[in-house]
Design goal:
Low-confidence stretches of chain B: 93-108
Low-confidence stretches of chain A: 215-219
Number of helices of chain A: 6
Structural class of chain A: mainly alpha
Radius of gyration of chain B: 19 Å
Mean pLDDT of chain A: 74
CATH class of the largest domain in chain B: Mainly Alpha
Shape of chain B: elongated
Oligomer: heterodimer
CATH superfamily of the largest domain in chain B: RNA polymerase sigma factor, region 2, helix turn helix motif
Number of strands of chain B: 0
Helix content of chain B: over 70%
Order of helices and strands of chain A: HHHHHH
Structural class of chain B: mainly alpha
Distance between the termini of chain A: 164 Å
Order of helices and strands of chain B: HHHHHHHHH
Mean pLDDT of chain B: 81
Strand content of chain A: under 5%
Number of domains of chain B: 2
Largest sheet of chain B: none
CATH architecture of the largest domain in chain B: Orthogonal Bundle
Amino acid sequence: MNCPDFAHKVEEYLDGCKALRTVLADHAAECPGCRELLAWADRIVSLPPPEPTTPAPEWTERVVQSVLRDRRMRRQRRTVAFALAASLVLAALILPILRWTTTPDANPTPVVAENAKPQPIPEQPRESVPELSLGPALRFGPASLEATRNLASEAARQATSLAAGAPGLRPKAEPRADPVADLGRNATGGLEPVVRSTRRAFDAWLDLLPVSTDEKPGL
Amino acid sequence: MSVDDARLVKRCQRDDPEAIRELVERFQGEVLGLCVRLVGDRHEAEDVAQEVFLRIFRSLHRWDSTRPLRPWIMAIAVNRCRTFLAQRRKRPETLEDLSGVAVRPSSTGDRELLQEIRLALEDVRPEYRIAFVLFHEQGRPYEFIAEALRRPVGTIKTWLHRCRQAVLERLRQRGMISEVGHELP
């Protein structure tokens, strides 16, 4: 074996081929330069494994806490991101539905023939008038009308019977009214018919009062 | 795949604090040991290892339960260390970093050779160092390193070869090996 071959064999020896050690040692015994190279290679091959490193308990605790904190933060971030994404998806789903339900005409563009004249756009009402619902009126109207009619009939019947049993309510013979030309003779002339009508009405009301004596107040 | 591992992972995914603590305690020695070896500084390694566990639990749902858990965790640790080392290379060295290197003694004994090899590893590219540590110190096969670093096996072999050359060159410069010694191919 010459020196260049020895160098190649040393490389293989360093790569893990321990069986070459004897052959290398034979050549190294004759060549001082190769002997030094083999000594160096022996030192590399027999490098001790790293000493077991025992960390301090505080370090272990620090690592565990940092891992737990990191996982907690990442979980929170994931939750927030999921909530945001869900909100966006919901908004993307709901907004078109809302827009569709509030738009009066979902397809406002009319189909126009190519040669048709453009028609003036009718003016749209500015405010939308809420539609009146006639349903309840149609349902309860006839019933309430019937009840009102019954009450009115009953009131008329009672009034008729009352008038029949009260002679004071009969109309009295009215004196002839003063001519209009005489109204200017005195200041009270124009009020006379009104006063008389009022007195008659009051008398009629007194007649309706249930009194047992013959004494009747009068004006 | 260990049934115990799969059960533990499922419990962790349900945010069971005891399961999380159990998983951390089961792998913390290996993860922190690898981080210390690759990063160098103990305090920085603890920060990196904490970050490793955060990433493990964040991507636990991506773990293929038909495969073993340990290599998957170690691959995450290796990748995190690699990122850290790449970031550290971009920032200027502090006085503490320089003094940490300067105070180490240099001698010719067996112990000192080991020390020099480890010092030499600090000057090589992070990818080379990771490949070297995983292969020579942790005894991982090429396939494991390739999967962890997401590179072909051939690339890992090349990195390892270049790393050995760099270490050898460094030892020559430091007088640990004579100048007449042979080169690696």
